[in-house]
Amino acid sequence: MRPPLSLFLTEPGRALLDYGALLATAPAVFAAPRGDGHPVVVIPGLLADDTSTSTMRLYLRGLGYNAHGWGLGRNLGPTPATQSGMRGLLTELHDVGRVKVSLVGWSLGGIFARELARRYPRLVRQVITLGSPFRLADPRDSRANGTYERLNRIHLRPEALPSREDLGRPIPVPSTAIYSKFDGIVPWQACIDAPGPGHENVAVYGSHLGFGHNPAVLWVIADRLAQREGAWRPFRPPAWAGRLFPARVAAAA
Predict the structure, then answer these.
(1) How far is residue 33's CA from residue 212's CA, in Å, rounded to a whole number?
(2) What angle do helix axes 215-225 and 54-62 make, rounded to 10 degrees?
(3) To 10 degrees, the CA torsion angle through 80, 82, 83, 85?
(4) Residues near 132 by beta carbon (within 8 Å), at least 6 away in sequence
(5) In whole angstroms, what is the distance from residue 37 CA to residue 66 CA?
(6) For residue 111, which of 51, 186, 54, 58 has the smallest C-alpha distance?
(7) Contacts 24+ apart (CB under 8 A), 148-155
(8) What pLDDT band is residue 223 in, cutting at 50, 70 and 90?
(9) Is residue 234 situated within a structural domain?
């Protein structure tokens, strides 16, 4: 179940190809449905900071969203500071406009986003995860596990964190899990949700490190965020983008 070494070693180069694909398709990607201005928080992956999500947030702002980074520096895992900081940001953004906040999380950031929605469903409009292994049964199957383990000393105590079984349970708000079978960091099978009303899985072509600037990923995010609250519907790719998506865009486990 661990991603092949060949995919892991080629991650940086393939991430550059994802960026090249974005440049090539930019006119079409920026023609995505515009938003209603509601707040969106983008949470970075392990060891990443808001710089890694800058392209995505710039794109979302261009579509009319009130897009924010998480503002907590480098993601070092579930530390006391990150957990309280995310809770504070979510509450603040909700209280300012009295509207629900959409959460987009990349890898570990997606796991954080799901757990925020589980704890504070009245504050969250929807969750979109990008290569987030929330159903990872064996942490050794992730090629980021060694790094995560080295940071354990600064994390919350294990008893204060949800179990792996709990992480995989459905969340009480609409969710879209974006994944790639060419992910070289985490097993794609761990990144898909149990299908059900308001929950879907969307497959894309691309690398784990390129999720933040992959044109198919950006289109899916824009399409999902543009839905009216309470009017969720399954994703369908536009006709022009057929080659950006595998045949089955809503594949289950």
Answers:
(1) 18
(2) 50
(3) 110
(4) 105, 106, 107, 108, 109, 110, 111, 113, 114, 177, 191
(5) 6
(6) 186
(7) 148/46, 148/77, 148/108, 151/76, 151/77, 152/77, 154/76, 154/77, 154/79, 155/77, 155/78, 155/79
(8) very high
(9) yes
Range of the domain at 230: 5-244
* DSSP calls for 172-188: SS-EEEEEETT-SSS-G
Mean pLDDT score of the chain? 94
Q: Distance between CA atoms of 251 and 99, rounded to whole angstroms?
A: 31
Measured from the Cβ of residue 166, the count of other Cβ atoms closer than 10 Å reads 11
Report yes or no on 62 lying in a domain: yes
Task: Say how far apart CA 136 and CA 148 lie, in whole Å.
Answer: 14
H or E stretch covering 18: helix 11-29
Taking only the tens place, the pLDDT of each residue in 52-82 is 999 999 999 999 999 999 999 999 999 999 9
pLDDT at residue 247, rounded to an integer = 66
Question: What is the mean pLDDT of the segment spanning 194-216?
Answer: 95
In a domain, 19, yes or no: yes
> Can you tell me the mean pLDDT for 189-207?
94
Write the pLDDT tens digit of every residue in 24-43.
Answer: 999 999 999 999 999 999 99
pTM exceeding 0.85: yes
Domain count, the chain: 1
Q: What is the CATH number of the domain that holds 225?
A: 3.40.50.1820
Whether 195 maps to a domain, the answer reads yes
